[in-house]
Amino acid sequence: MTGKRVTFSNTWLAGLLIAPQLILVFTFFYWPAGEALYWSFTLEPPFGGENQWVGWQNFKTVFEDPLYWNSVRISVIFALCSTALAMGIALILATFVDRQLPGYQAYRFMYFWPYAVAAPAVGLAFRFIFAPDAGFVSALNQWYPGIWNPARDGVDAVILITLANAWSMVAYNFIFFLAGLQSIPRSLTEAAAMDGSGVLRRMADIQFPLLAPTFFFLVVINLTDSFVNSFGIVDITTAGGPARATDLMVYKIYSDGFKGKDYSLAAAQSLVLMLLVVSLTFIQFRFVERRVHYT
Amino acid sequence: MAIKSFGIAALALAATIGAAQAQTSRVKFEYWYGLTGQLGEVMAEHCKRFNESQPKFEAVCVGQGGYDRAEQNTIAAFRARQHPTIVQIYDAGTVNFMLSQATYNAVQFARDFKMKIDWNDYFPGIRSYYATSKGEMWSFPYNSSSAVMYWNRAEWAKIGRTTPPATWEQFERDMRALKAAGHSCAYAFDFDTWQSMEQLSAIHNQPIATMGNGYEGLGAELVINQGVFPRHVANLKKWQDEGLARVQTAQTGKTIVQAFADGTCASMLSSIANHGVVGDTGRPGLDWDVAMIPVYEGFSRHNSLVGGASLWVMANKSKEEYEAAAAFLDFVLTPAEVKWMPNVTGYIPITVPAFNQMRDEGFYAQPKFKGREVAMQSLTFTPPTKNTSGIRLGNFTSIRSEVRSELEAIMNGQKTVEVGLNDAVARSNQILRRFEQTFRGRTLP
Prior knowledge:
The complex is a heterodimer of chains A (295) and B (445). Chain A has 295 residues and is mostly helical. Chain A has one domain (61-291): MetI-like fold (Orthogonal Bundle), CATH 1.10.3720. Chain A contains 13 helices and two strands. In chain A, strands 1-2 form a two-stranded antiparallel ribbon. Chain B has 445 residues and is an alpha/beta fold. Chain B folds into two domains: 2-145 and 306-368, D-Maltodextrin-Binding Protein, domain 2 (3-Layer(aba) Sandwich), CATH 3.40.190; 147-304 and 394-438, 3-Layer(aba) Sandwich (D-Maltodextrin-Binding Protein, domain 2), CATH 3.40.190. Chain B has 19 helices and eleven strands. Chain B is globular and about 70 Å long. Chains A and B meet through α12 of A and α3, α18 and α19 of B.
């Protein structure tokens, strides 16, 4: 099996062709990441000027702060819950549409709209709908006073941002699940149906195993997205409160760096966050992907 | 005929080009402002008034979408050498700009470009907030406000009172009476530290931090766990638990201003800048007024603090741009312009001559603006002391948010007043030490 390898000998041309992409990646990823690495070992005055080398001090400040670990804990809970919720709901919706239940064309068209809504808009909508005094959900408080109050109760606040984040991610997941389901050959499910297996059995034994690659891809994307992209929702809905209950890692970076102008502390935190996301993704590829069969 | 109309068209074209050239030959400078919404429109309008007032200079005004952003963007732009000539920076950003070495200090600027400004025209309380420890102005005060108490006169009439409470003790009795009369929210408050911590401490002449609230150096430490603030927080908690007062934030559904304007809550502490908002958005027939913030018995009232923003001139611009900027700053300080601002916003006139003119012309007698002079009374109640000149603490935005979080924990019952405020002080002091270390080798002017 020493098949011929097709190679492209003109490396200069190849380099030229990929250069625009490389420049973009360098300018918008490697360069800022390098700068952040440098800042995290120095103390950087907001307007620039003489910054001083402080070694591990910024990281020490971050790790010695009990509230930072609180922030990590909330971020992990938030990421796991909103990923599970977003993928679960998307999978159910996608199977419904795939089974061509009545009206599926309309749903197929509409379900991905939420993904096009910007995070702050999602946050604003959820804040209004779930406001304990005035929102739609305030009806709950009419029946059981005080049962729902994200402005006072940290757990309620976490539920609120989890719902908002999951709502906007469902749309994205739905598209991939539906595409995955539709790429499963009909003959397989039909054969199973002829053998007498019901809908749920076919899902469990045929469709879901064949969806494994999509599933794996979406877990990676959803977790990453929940860790790094959720700050717009948090900023508008809860602003990190009440009493830091929704102070996610990425929101803390934003408030320390952009509001507080402590660039070095924010740089150190963003490196920690980056390492966390990289290692999570690494673990997933190392251990989970082995169980995934690509058809 | 065809030739004639072609000729006219050519003439018209030439005229347009000529006009355009006249436009571009004006000296331009950039001005960035932070305010948004209706107030942002007023900022843009102010530029337009300047551009129309004279032919030589043109202000190019760009809204940055919020005070925070205006500061962030200016910092980023300065690092990239793309910064504006003038920028509007909010009160809490003053310390960063004073230490930045990126600005042209106002006193020097006014001298170098022969501005007509008389620094003594500003109200002392406004001057002190933006001045250095030596009393020099480094920026030009612009839109300014102070905090007052808004009270619902009709609700107070129901309990047989026609005057607003002057002390917190009286206020408590009034709230109990209001509750007894069936009112479910006598007082609305939120976790904004500006009213409950900063203004309250000032009017009681209590320090927020050592070293003259930070004016004397970067080594200051927070002291809000002593004095009148802990007592007030304990009261807020008690009033909340008794059902007299209620937390109103965007998260609960209505902000304090919305809750007051629609009559849900009978009183609040807020900026005088919201005077127009309550007037415009208030429920029809809402009978309300403003009064000075109450003081605790046994304390003598002092001046409250100014809030709002000032205009900073940035370093490293051309002489022409500076001349244009000086003309703009002179323009906004003319009495006519200082008087214009309170007409279109809730801000106060910032200079004494403009205020006197407005009072004499009967501005404060007009129903729409009645009560706004209360903010001036409050701001000028006494000459500023060490504790009431202002607050000059590094990274004050983060300190505010630490205090806010602890107040939330206290009001939710997760922490006692003592533990919460001690935690806020400890964490804020860490922030201050980091700031001091970041600016090692620099001293506050």
